[in-house]
Amino acid sequence: MFGCHIGRNFQVTVAGGSYQDGLTAIVQGLPPGMLLTEQEIYGDLLLRKPGTDELSSPRKEPDLPIIYTGLNSADTVENAGNKNHTNGTPLTILIPNLDRHFIHIKQYQDTNRTPRPGHASYASFMKYGPDDDAIGAGIFSGRYTSTIVAAGYIAKKILKKCGIEVFSYVKELASVKCPDVDHVKALEYTNTYKRMRHDLDPFYQEIYVKGRVTMDMRLLEKVRVFAEIEDEIDTIRDKTPRVDPDDIKEKYGVHHIVNCPDIDAAQAMTDACNKISSTGDSAGGVVEVVATGVPAGLGEPVFCKLDAELGRMLGIGAVKGVEVGAGFAVKDMTGYECNDQIHAENGKVVFDSNNAGGITGGLSTGQPIIIRLAVKPTPTIDKAQHTIDKYTLENKNLAAITRRDPTIVARIWPIAENYTAMVILDNLIAHYGYQSLKNKVNR
Q1: What's the pLDDT at 140?
Q2: Which positions ≥6 away from 269 have C-beta within 8 Å?
Q3: What is the DSSP code (8-state) at residue 375?
Q4: How far apart are CA 35 and CA 27, in angstroms?
Q5: What confidence score (pLDDT) does residue 423 get?
Q6: For residue 370, how many C-alpha atoms fall within 13 Å in the half-sphere facing its CB?
Q7: Strand blocks (E) in 293-436
Q8: Are 124 and 69 in contact (CB under 8 A)?
Q9: CA–CA dist 19, 34 (Å, integer)
Q10: Minimal CA–CA distance to 327: which of 355, 300, 304?
């Protein structure tokens, strides 16, 4: 299968499917010497996994990662202190599917003759034929995005060491919009929201904080524990603390479900989405990603422009539009209104606005990079729809009997955040190399 690889310098290849044994991300281009743990990767994976609140699918996948290659399994010499450091070779992350039961497979088998409207099931059948991995939509399922989150977390960690912060949040859900929020406050809010999710996630606490799985364990030891966890998913989930929205707001200053840096807007989003979901339908929205600290001149011209590379986030399932800066709003502006005028202030370049979203000519300007993703409503809904039998072409009716998300928006922001980090790191590696070579040549 083509199309499951991205990057030139920071390269990621993904594989697996919703109801296969699991998913895999292979990451190349990592520098050696970086300490990396499964706990910190899971800290981002838990942000997108299902079954955590009323706005997500009841599927109970814990999304626990195993780092299989790319780390030193022991100190390279006695007391070197480089165990679990990246060693520069390809890093492989395995994400086993643990909540995979016959009852759910049977639900797909019973309905796979009739493609679900809005899903890839008809097109993928036409491409791959009767052997198409149609159980849970295979690699076209939202489950594959766990690989993006896992690989992108590593990119984000490297960028942070380079002074670049990448974060994301829900900008709009079910037609409820978040008012504009200062980037510094939005970053602080998002980091606090993540800490809240870590504190309340039972798998984070029971598996990692309590040391049931550690980086000192070999693969087969971890697999043995994972087999136990598969039988204990409900027991561990039952340890989730009772969430009182007011307590969460008082303790953390965030909304208990939606990562939107305006709590009132977040609650209005939740209410509007629940109202739609109660009818059997689903809701869409907008996710905003911000990258700060990106040096000016990052990117390439023509076919590899930085904004064009970020536009590849159309590859995230359910994303139907990507805009940078003012995006489609530029159609209603004049040139004078749209142009980001420039002046010097205390020896520094300052832009009067950021309609370009921090990118002009495909190159970064040094301003914050702003990207927004339009996310469609979840296509699996609990309403009768007309479709066909893909074998006989008879007209059929279909209503969802499988697990579904009332909205995908509240789970896509960490995917967008980490995808953006992969793109920026890929370009940053080239930028550092190009600038270093330029400086040597021009001595």
Answers
A1: 79
A2: 170, 172, 173, 174, 176, 178, 258, 260, 285
A3: E
A4: 15
A5: 98
A6: 18
A7: 319-324, 342-345, 348-351, 359-360, 363-364, 369-375, 385-388, 395-398
A8: no
A9: 33
A10: 355
Amino acid found at 191: N
At residue 149, the pLDDT reads 97
**Phi and psi, residue 268, nearest 5°:** -65, -35
Across 221-298, where does the E strand assignment appear?
285-292
Place of tokens 């009772």: 242
Beta carbons of 361 and 301 less than 8 angstroms apart: yes
Contact present, 298 and 368 (Cβ < 8 Å): no
10-residue averages of pLDDT along the chain (443 residues) = 88 88 95 97 92 64 94 95 97 89 68 80 84 74 90 98 98 96 96 96 96 96 95 90 92 96 97 92 96 97 96 94 97 97 94 97 97 93 86 84 78 97 98 93 87
CA–CA separation, 315 vs 120, rounded Å? Answer: 13
The 3-state DSSP class for residue 174 equals coil
User: To the nearest 10°, the Cα dihedral for 255, 256, 260, 266?
Assistant: -70
Phi/psi region, residue 208 (left: phi>0; alpha: psi -120 to 50; beta: rest), is: alpha
Q: Which H/E stretch holds residue 272?
A: helix 263-277
Task: Kindly report the CATH number assigned to the domain that includes residue 378.
Answer: 3.60.150.10
Residue numbers of the domain that contains 283: 5-441
Cβ pair 69, 92 in contact under 8 A: yes
Structural domain total, the chain: 1
Q: Are 108 and 134 in contact (CB under 8 A)?
A: yes
Question: Cα–Cα distance between 15 and 31 in angstroms, integer?
Answer: 23
Report the pLDDT value the prediction gives residue 226, as an integer from 0 to 100: 95
Structure confidence at residue 357 (pLDDT) = 98
b/e for 120-146, b at 16 or more Cβ within 10 A? bbeebbeeeeeebbbbbbbbbbbbbbb
Dist CA 7 CA 292 (whole Å): 21
Handedness of CA 116, 121, 122, 123 (dihedral sign): positive
Cα gap 190→171, rounded to integer Å: 12
Are 257 and 266 contacting, i.e. CB atoms less than 8 angstroms apart?
A: yes
